[in-house]
Amino acid sequence: xxxxxxxxxxxxxxxxxxxxxxxxxxxxxxxxxxxxxxxxxxxxxxxxxxxxxxxxxxxxxxxxxxxxxxxxxxxxxxxxxxxxxxxxxxxxxxxxxxxxxxxxxxx
Length: 107
Fold this sequence. Notes:
Blueprint: H1 2-12, H2 32-40, E1 44-47, E2 57-61, E3 66-74, E4 77-80, E5 88-90, E6 99-105
């Protein structure tokens, strides 16, 4: 989440909150991202997969829970930080089956 927070702060001059969370919140089924979306929904638009554009946040997970967020930084180029790995770029379709929707900051 810190990678996405830094990206938003640098590129959009918008500071995402840094909610307290313990390691394993995903495994315990805590809906951290869903709670944040409900709190900030007036500041963002939810974007369908097929309408995602560079600059959109990408929310990943399964049908029951959002468990990861990335950024589409260019056409077909996503920036992610996975737990226990270095941040890296991936093609958009690399994790497309887990992409739930995009999140775009309203202007």
